Amino acid sequence: MGSGARLSGLVALGLALMGRAFAQTPYAGPLFDAHLHYNDEACVHDTPSPGCPHPLTDVLARMQRNGVRAVLANSRPNAGTLALAGAREQTRAAGVTVVPFVRLYRNRADYSGWFADGTIAEMVQTELARGTPAGAYRGLGEFHLYDSANANGPVAKQLMALAEQKDLAILAHVDDVAIDLLMANTPSKGQKQLLIWAHTGISGAPVARVDELFARYPRLMGELSYRPGLTCDGGQLCPEWRALLLKYPERFMIGSDTWVNQRWLYYDELMQSYRAWLGGLPADVARRIAWNNGAQLFGFNQNAPATR
Ligand SMILES: [Zn+2]
Fold this sequence. Notes:
By secondary structure, the chain is an alpha/beta fold.
């Protein structure tokens, strides 16, 4: 190798390192955690240890130290959300806004039968009528459909119609087929319904299919936890996902999905991994996905401090 080649090789290496360093400057602004559970494995409130491994002080400290300034909260049973929503002084002190959703599950058994269980619809009505200390419930979910055909179950149909009528968002862990079925069960056929698609297709709906659904339903949003194929080398976005996020910067959000306590234990790492790939996006797009989209949907301060 001649000295010229060696020099250009060094320049190329230097540029590559610079590019890498630049791409990996993490996003430093506020985060909206759009998929948070505060389930009874994390805490059965008002019980002594070991009934509450993650008390309010612990989960709020995790949010605060990660710059999470708002959470879409739901829990199995709803007592966890009510505890979080009721801790007005503590959430204020931690700088966390709580956006409460009604979970459709009282226990694990409800995961597999809620869509045809009239007592779930009754529970939802009771919760909506009561509201929370942080204000009215803003949505329904998270719910799961392991078989998309159950989107046409009687209670699923009833709750989708109710959601649009009462302007409640939906948080749904479903496949792409169920998105169409659920939307068809709203009065506007999905043209008015806000639906946050948990994981944006956890079983890996192709990017082209996600794109098609986003084009069809103007208020379909994608929450990105557990999404297969999202990140590639160095924890940065894979090219086709980067392109999709740039195409729809107003339609994506990040979330923790603290469905088991291990997710609480790794909450810091989860948020750092989001900050890493957010930092690889243009600053305005990163800020939208990290914070503004959620703040805008639920109508509160989009101008949260730019830094942690
Ligand atoms: Zn979840």
